[in-house]
Amino acid sequence: MLKAQSGVCAEPNLHGLTLFCNVMTDDVDAVRGKLARIPDIISELDDRFSESMLNGFVAVGADYWDVVYPEQKPVYLRRFPELSQGDREAPRQPYDLLLQIRSDRFDANYLAGRTLLEWLGYDVEVVEQLRTFRYLDGRDLTGFIDAPDNPRGLRKRAVALLDPDMDAEFAGGSYLFLQKFRHDLRRWDHLGPERQQQIMGRDKVSGERLAEAEIEGVTHAAKTRLLGADEQPVALLRQNMPWGDLREQGLLGMYFSNQPKTVIDWLKERYYEDEQGHYDPLLDYTQAVTNASFFVPSPDFLKRYRYAIQTDSRQDSDTTE
Question: Where does the Dyp-type peroxidase N-terminal domain start and stop, copy by copy (predicted)?
Fold first, then answer.
C-alpha cells in the first residue's frame, strides 16, 4: 500500500493547527534535510499522544518547488488558478511551505507546532497561523454538514494519492488546493433556515439533498457536486475545518487530489457563470481570502532526497581527498 503523510487521508479530528510559512535561507540542502525529518517527528508525537489521534503533513508550495527540488517536479503542479468574475474572486498568496497538525487535543497540537518550528529553526518564518476546530457534528459554521459527499474509507486514498502508474516518482503524494474562506454570518443568519436550504440545496439537519420539486434555483449542492461535465467522478478529498472567534469566522478548505485538472474545473464551476448565468450562490455569503496550491510529497520522496544529498556530499569529499 502507498505510504502517504499521515494527515492527508486521516479521519476528522477535534482541533487543527495550520502554519503558513516562507523559507528564509538559500541553503537548499539544509531545507531538504529538515523536511525529510518532519513525517518522523509527527509519527513520534503521535506515539506520545496516541489517544489524541495526532496526524499531520508538510506541503511544498507551487512557487517554491523549483527552488528546493529542481531535479524533479510533479507533472501538474501549478500556481493556484485565477478565479475572478464579478464580485467573486480568489486572490492567490504564494507560500513556500504549509504545515498542518490535527488531533483531538489542542495542547498536543500546540506542542507539535512548537516542536516542528524548533526543528526548522530560523530557516523558516511563520507568516500566518490558523487554529481550526470541529463544529458540532462535523458542520460548517453556516450550520450545514460540511462535504456530505466526501469519499470515505479506502476511497479517500484512491482519489487523493498518486499511484505509480500516474507518476512513479511521486507515488503516495497528493496535490493540494487551499482556500481560507471568511464568512459573512450576519447576512447568512438573517436569511433564515428555509432560504438557507434553498441556497445549499440540502436539508439543514440531515444534509440530504432537497427534491428537485422543492428547489427554486441553482444551489451550492449542484455547483459542488463531485461529478464532472462528462458525469465521471471528480477525484477530490476535502479535509475542511472551521476557524474563527467571535469577531470573524470561516472555513479552511483543503482539497486533496491525484487529478488536479478536475479540481480546477470544479473550482471554476463554482466561481464562473454558466450559460444560464448561474454560479455557486454560497459565494455571495463567503469570500476566499487566501488561496494557494501545494504538493504533499510522500515520506519516501522526502527521505530519498535527504539521503541523496548526504551521498553526494560524501562523494564530493572523497573526490577532493
Answer: 40-133
| Torsion angle, alpha carbons of 153, 180, 36, 76, to 10 | 80
Residues contacting residue 195 through CB under 8 Å, at least 6 positions apart: none
Q: How confident is the model at residue 312 (pLDDT cuts 50, 70, 90)?
A: very low
Rounded Cα distance between 259 and 174, Å, is 9
Q: Which three-class secondary structure string do you get for the chain?
A: CCCCCCCCCCCCCCEEEEEEEEECCCCHHHHHHHHHHHHHHHHHHHHHCHHHCCEEEEEEECCCHHHHCCCCCCCCCCCCCCCEECCEECCECCCCEEEEEEECCHHHHHHHHHHHHHHHHHHEEEEEEEEEECCCCCECCCCCECCCCCCCCHHHHHHHCCCHHHHHHHCCCEEEEEEEEEECHHHHHHHCHHHHHHHHCECCCCCCECCHHHCCCCCHHHHCCCECCCCCECCCEECCEEEECCCCEEEEEEEEECCHHHHHHHHHHHHCCCCCCCCCHHHHCEEEEEEEEEEECCHHHHHHHHHHHHHHHHHHHHHHC
Distance CA 291, CA 176 (A): 11
pTM: 0.92
User: What is the reported pLDDT for 2?
Assistant: 77
